[in-house]
Amino acid sequence: MELQSLIYLFVGVTFAVYIGIALWAKAGSTKDFYVAGGGVHPIANGMATAADWMSAASFISLAGIIAFKGSDGGAYLMGWTGGYVLLAMLLAPYLRKFGKFTVPDFVGDRYYSDTARLVAVVGVIFVSFTYVAGQMRGVGIVFSRFLQVDVNTGVLIGMAIVFFYSVLGGMKGITYTQVAQYVVMIFAYMIPAIFLSLQVTDTFLPQLGIFATTTFAFSNGVQVIPEGTYLLHALDQSLLDLGFKAYTEPGNLWNMFMLTTALMLGTAGLPHVIVRFFTVPTVKDARVSAGWALIFIAIMYTTISSVASFSRVNLIKNIQNVEYAAFVNNEVKHPDGTSNNGKWFKTWEQGGLLAWTDRNGDGKIQYAPGMAFDGAKGAPQFDGTKVGAHGERLTTNSKPLANTGKLENEVYVDNDIMVLANPEIANLPNWVIAFIAAGGLAAALSTAAGLLLVIASAISHDLMGQVIFKDKTTGKSTLNEKTELMWARISAVVAIAIAGYLGINPPGFVAQVVAFAFGLAAAAFFPTIILGVFDKRMNKEGAIAGILVGLFFTFGYIVYFVFMGGSKEDYLFGIDPTGIGTIGTLLHLIVAFVVSRMTPPPPQEIQDLVERIRIPSGAGEAVDH
To answer: Residue 343 burial by CB count (10 A; 0-12/13-18/19+): exposed, middle or buried?
Structure first.
């Protein structure tokens, strides 16, 4: 079958399964809507958690970032994986015993204050929207390539699908849908990875491919790298020859440390993952399911570095110094006589995520450091659908040659296309390429749906139910279940609309946008949750002050340097905006601690409650206080 038909088939079948599951598991009560009725098997919950956690950033963007940043990209791997361990060991069992579904619920009850709850709701909405913008951008990228539509049209299609199954199904629909999505995702990631590993290094296990030797000789445009060279050495040598820094050479270790820490603490404070620990019957099951999730996550996370290395080698091997016109018409051969199929280059060009400009007029593609295009982030601006002399898509902001005598870059490659384009660059079978399309969509949609649910429950359950429509005498919500469910669904619709807008106007690459969300989660929630569990002297004044300082400092820093064009010279201690969440967390911790010690201690019953939470053994079902 031809590629496009296979893509429609794979994507269509997987979607039919997801929507079928959502309808089969339709939520009937608010408890079903928020936490799947609290009765999901730990292994199933582990798979759903893994699908929730391995978002479009992991599936689509992470290998791309490592492919272009080299060892610096390892911060994302270490931060996200370490953060999950932190969450599973340090927080999950205690929050599970406390028995609250959402972060604002925990903050509102532990800090005996509706103001604290309101501040937490604001925090959750900030974090979730930033995160969901990245996912929607991921959906747009997948659709733009595989349905051959514009990125923005792709985002709109994604919005419609997320709306359907998160609004109808709620958490119960999402939990079982995510089990199916995990299965699709892991196969869609691992099968191309195994193919690539065998093709590039002759090693069946892709996790070990990064340490193996290459199965082919290739020219990097400066010299021929012989067959049997260690993959990382081949990459280092090729990049140094072309003028880049070596692949394995670390960059700014201070920023790497800051980013790793922000991602780690952000994972532990991330609202949509914490909810997962309430969807199983007991605390023991919560721990078991966290363990299973870690195994399911590790399968993919131990493969990402290898996939990144394969993709960068393949990119250099296939595009360096080839004639554009012959390449995109599949007329170029590798030195060993095999076909160098360049059709993929043209297809990604149409989506606007890849571009070539013939700066030196020789008709060949040159790949080197530096920007090929003028303007923000070096992205190309296309002249409608016009084509240039060689059939390339015409751009209006090509940089003039600097004539430095060095190789000058003529290519723009969006980081986020590397995983999806990888099987095509490597000439893998069509069914493998179609499968990775289904996997990319599963990754982006599973997390988008989980996040929209967090936003919906923050607004309907925490804001409407616990603050606006709260009976002052009984302290209970005056909303009945039906009305609360209605509010949850209205909130989800509004959330999807805003998320779609952010997906069409994204502040950066998918993994970058997601890193901002993790920085915000770290600075807004981590200290308040940790102190809420381990420090009984921690009071509402401390929590409110800490959340506000952490959230607004981090948010302000990101907005100033990313959106308002702040200069890198003005970075605080040289810290990049992706890693500033670490400083935000420290400020939150200090402010919360100091303010709590200068104000009255919490009531005795709250202090007793904190003592009780800290004994996770013997805890049964989640309870209300």
So the answer is: middle
Q: Count CB neighbours of 362 within 10 A.
A: 12
DSSP classification of residue 251: -
H/E run at residue 394: strand 393-395
- Supply the DSSP string of 1-68, one letter for each residue: --HHHHHHHHHHHHHHHHHHHHHHT---SHHHHHHGGG---HHHHHHHHHHHHS-HIIIIIHHHHHHH
* Cα atoms found within 13 Å of the Cα of residue 445, Cβ hemisphere only: 36
Our measurement of the distance from residue 545's CA atom to the centroid of its chain's CA atoms, rounded to an integer in Å, reads: 29
Q: How far is CA 171 from CA 7, 165, 278, in A?
A: 28, 10, 11
- What is the 3-class SS of 91-137, one letter each residue? HHHHHHHHCCCCHHHHHHHHCCCHHHHHHHHHHHHHHHHHHHHHHHH
Average pLDDT of the residues of the chain: 82
CB 591 within 8 A of CB 539: no
469 — phi, psi (to 5°)? Answer: -100, 50
pLDDT at 36 over 60: no
Q: Are 408 and 221 in contact (CB under 8 A)?
A: no
Task: Determine the Cα–Cα distance for residues 272 and 454; give it in Å rounded to an integer.
Answer: 6
The backbone torsions φ and ψ at residue 176, rounded to the nearest 5 degrees and listed phi first, read: -75, -30
Cβ partners under 8 Å of residue 85, min gap 6: 294
What amino acid occupies position 272? Answer: H
Instruction: Say which range, 125-139, 293-307, 387-401, 413-427, has the weakest mean pLDDT.
Output: 125-139
User: For position 619, what pLDDT does the model report?
Assistant: 47
Mean pLDDT check: name the lowest of 29-43, 547-561, 584-598. Answer: 29-43
* Residue 364: closest CA among 386, 382, 342, 397: 342
- Residue showing tokens 């800490």: 546
Q: How many whole angstroms separate alpha carbon 121 and alpha carbon 117?
A: 6
CA neighbours within 13 Å on the CB side: how many for 149? 13
Cβ distance 141 to 151 under 8 Å? Answer: yes
Q: Residue 71, CB half-sphere, CA atoms under 13 Å: how many?
A: 13
Q: Of the ranges 311-325, 349-363, 473-487, 603-617, which is most confident? A: 311-325
Sign of CA dihedral 183, 188, 190, 195: positive
Q: What is the 3-state secondary structure (H, E, C) of 170-194?
A: HHHHHHHHHHHHHHHHHHHHHHHHH
Q: Please name every residue paired with 187 in a beta bridge, in sequence order, or none if there are none.
A: none
Chain Cα centroid distance, residue 506: 13
- 394-450: pLDDT as tens digits: 888 888 887 777 788 889 888 888 888 888 888 888 888 888 888 887 777 767 776
Fill in the amino acid letter for 82: G
Taking alpha carbons only, the member of 459, 624, 608 closest to residue 98 is 624
d(CA 298, CA 140): 27
* Beta carbons within 10 angstroms of residue 270's beta carbon: 29
- In this structure, what DSSP letter does residue 211 have? T
